[in-house]
Amino acid sequence: MGTDAERESGFDTDAGLRFAALKGKLFAAVLAGSTLVGIVALLVLFGYIANDAFRPTTASLQWYLVYFTTLVGPTAAFTLYARRNPEVRAVNAKSYAVVFGGLLMALITYAVLDAVSPYDVAVYALVGGIPPLIVYAYEGMTGDRTYTGPAYPALVVLGLAIAAVLYGVVRPLVGILASWIVYYTLVTIPIATGLSVLATRRLGSRSGRLTAGTVGGGTVLVAVGALALGYAPAFPVVFASLFVAPVGYVVVETVRSNPEGRVGLAGPFVLVGGALLGAAIVGRFSVQSPETFLTPTLLVESWDGLTASNAGVYPQIVGSIVIVAFMMVLAFPLGIGAAIYLEEYAPNTGLRGRLATILEVNIANLAGVPSVVYGLLGLALFRNTLGFGTGIVVSASGTLGLLILPILVVSTQEALRSVPDARREAAYGMGASRWQTIRTVVLPEAIPGTLTGTILSLARAIGETAPLVIIAVATTTYTPPHGLFSSATALPLQIFAARSSALPEFRHGVVPAAAVVLLVLMLLMNATAILIRNRYQRND
What is the rounded CA–CA span in Å between residue 380 and residue 388? Predict the structure, then answer.
């Protein structure tokens, strides 16, 4: 009897295990199917957008043959060659990043500085950086970092406040300088310093000094040459600093230290050269090109609501970049600081512990609040309470900052929780203070998770329209913002406004082309965070 009971019990156990395994397989199949459906739906959506934006069917067969011969074929062949050699592949990836990243950074930096006035940026950068520099010098002389680390965010805010108070005194003094000297101070000097530090670490102090002198002196020669030819030297200074200098450094450093992979440097130049050669052939022989709305006019001109071919979204692009950039300045220190306090400093027991728990629950709930509610909050806070103007950059950035703040806090908390307690205890055992442990052990480990939250928050913020509509941000402007307290608009709002146009070429041409530009902006911001995150993950 006992044997029969044991067999029956064992049979029931095996049946339960098989049923549980079957449920797990069915659940996995449902997840895989839903994921596949979502991917296909996105591909179909992007296909419709790309077809309306680029209109590939309007190009002739000769156009495709030209670009396949000059661009697609050589680039694909070089890429296949690079993939077979790890050294060439690594150098090829680095060269693509520095060439196209430097080019985009040069264009974006110049557009933003030109829009908001480089003189104003110089006032806040120079005056606002004095308190942190004083503390940094104190660290260097004494070697004491016990209390200086947590003070840096407060010192930055203090410096910006001092700059705002002294703006009326400092601004006329800075205004005496030529504009290219201001660009040189804001862009060239930091780039020369950064490249000098890299060269010193990898090649020695002599190479570091030579790098700094080459970048600084070369940029001065570029400015003088532009003045001699009668051109404004501001953009050449920015272009030489953010594109030519990094590309030159990577080329020289790779040729000197990595002879096996130096061939990979040719990758981006094969791509760019093929594109230029194809364009020259198409122009020379009048080959029929696609009738696309994604043209230089769209990127560098202002809006024209009457003629679709003349419509441009340059002010909207600059407005989106300025709003999101200032949103990051406002939200990231506050969000990361709040997460550090809740995870590392807040007690678990007592009244303060209960308050911290209530705060965490409310922050988690705020992450799911509709964006329209944050628009109402921004309207009440920035317009009605603080009395800010309608639709200005500060109000838009502050409202979007409130929107992404819960996402930042929650994701940073999860990243901090993922750091093993054994590492904290080891740091404490070696005599490190709590802040030293957080700064040198916890935060470096948590950076990949924190940047994941950054990617999610940026993707949500840059595409928002409802909060900006609620706080009365204009849907159409014809000039970029010229300061934090000037009116601005964002690219999603212009897309929203153009979608209701009575002209079909706006709805089915300009709108998808502007949507592609918005996607590219979002991907560029996310790619920067992803590269930083992956670098820290590799270092781990």
Answer: 10
Q: Quick one: how many helices (H) and strands (E) in the chain?
A: 26, 0
Q: What is the DSSP string of 267-304?
A: HHHHHHHHHHHHHHHHHHTTPPPP--S-SHHHHHS---
The encoded tokens of residue 40 equal 């296909």
Say if residues 470 and 379 touch (Cβ distance below 8 Å).
Answer: yes
Residues 468, 488 contacting (CB under 8 angstroms): no
Please check whether residue 412 is in contact with residue 446, taking contact to mean a CB–CB distance below 8 angstroms.
yes
- CA separation for the pair 445, 10 (Å, rounded): 47
Strand partners, 392: 487
pLDDT along the chain (540 residues), means of 10: 53 66 82 86 83 84 90 89 86 86 86 83 81 73 62 72 81 86 90 88 83 90 90 90 90 84 87 89 86 84 83 87 85 85 80 80 81 86 82 86 88 86 84 80 82 79 85 82 81 85 83 86 76 62
Q: Write out the two tokens for 185.
A: 């101070």
Burial class of 265 by CB neighbour count within 10 A (0 to 12, 13 to 18, 19+):
buried
Torsion over CA of 347, 351, 357 and 360, rounded to 10 degrees?
-90
3-state SS of 350-381 is HHHHHHHHHHHHHHHHHCCCCHHHHHHHHHHH
Pairwise CA distance, residues 253 & 255, whole Å: 6
Helices (H), 285-313: 296-300
Global pTM reads 0.81
Q: What is the 3-state secondary structure (H, E, C) of 16-31?
A: HHHHHHHHHHHHHHHH
Contact 204, 219 (CB under 8 A): no
Report the residue count for the chain. 540
**Cα torsion for 215, 219, 220, 223, to the nearest 10°?**
180
Residues 6+ apart with CB under 8 A from 273: none
The span from the CA of 508 to the CA of 52, in Å, is 6
Whether the Cβ atoms of residue 280 and residue 69 lie closer than 8 Å to each other = no
Angle between helices 511-539 and 314-340 in degrees, nearest 10: 30
C-alpha to C-alpha distance for 425 and 443, rounded to whole angstroms:
15
Q: What is the DSSP-derived secondary structure letter of residue 392? A: B
**215 within 8 A of 194, measured Cβ to Cβ:** no
Taking residue 284's Cβ as centre, other Cβ atoms within 10 Å add up to 8
For residues 274 and 75, the answer to whether their CB atoms sit within 8 Å is: yes
